[in-house]
């Protein structure tokens, strides 16, 4: 993570000083709000006795979305060929997909559990989702400069790769971003009808899953469906108790358990509900969990539920500013665009706002340590404004 932050800072600084670049208000507002979150956590830490190492680690972690969005935005503003980014994403996602499928095809664990497959070949790759979306959206567009049959082959390879990640967040990203690109997440009667339909389908799916006695230890697709069935309980339900000789109960509700322990820690000081515990604060799990290496960890700085994480570090004020960031992204879908590509980028940004709103519950949203989604969001902003800039020059 530290390497990513340093590289993003270096890229942002070098691009910024090379030539004066105008930063539009929407992206400037997002960067300011992200900076405010960093400021809140840091100022509160000055009135606490947290370890310096833990404070610095949190500063780096909270700086990551700021630097990734900013560097992605600046990078795309410097590229004159607006189709170049789309081509790069498609071919990079294709390479990742081929690599993923090759690893699976040559592995001796192809008949293992889904967890074994995910540990072996990866648990998901967000750029493949964007690559698949670009291939589909620009299917009839000459922007990729490849034949339709080639596009179909590329789409099939990437889609198969995504399927074999068995990733719930990848499936969620596909659903939200495809709906967003076609305007179904913008408030309208049609969007409302699709939402009702989606809720009914989701309700029927979970109604069916809850009638099934799924075994989490089984191999194959049953394990995947168990994870889908258990997803709400894992996030929102806390374990009834903890038996040090049996981790199953607590790990079936792990995200809920982390959040519960964080909120218990905040009960020590009522002001923490407003301003948080500050950077450097740690959660006491109450036992040494088998995470973070062979020795395990009892005190952890980060956890899965992003809303509780932001609340724990920066309080209700931090949650308010975070939601403003999500709203700023979402409303981008309502902005008029002069070209189809710019409109797609705006709707993608809007979809990313919705995606982060939901994934903040499970993988900390903007503050996810491993995803490239935040950097790509900055790229979408940069490309949108670059197209607008080019239109003014040549229009």
TrEMBL record:
Protein name per its UniProtKB record: O-antigen ligase family protein
Keywords from the named record: Ligase, Membrane, Transmembrane, Transmembrane helix
Main location: membrane
TM helices/strands, residue ranges: 26-47, 59-76, 88-110, 117-139, 151-179, 191-209, 307-327, 348-367
Subcellular localization: Membrane
Bilayer topology annotation: Multi-pass membrane protein
Span of domain O-antigen ligase-related: 154-323
Molecular function, one GO term: ligase activity
Short name of one Pfam family: Wzy_C
Superkingdom to which the source organism belongs: Bacteria
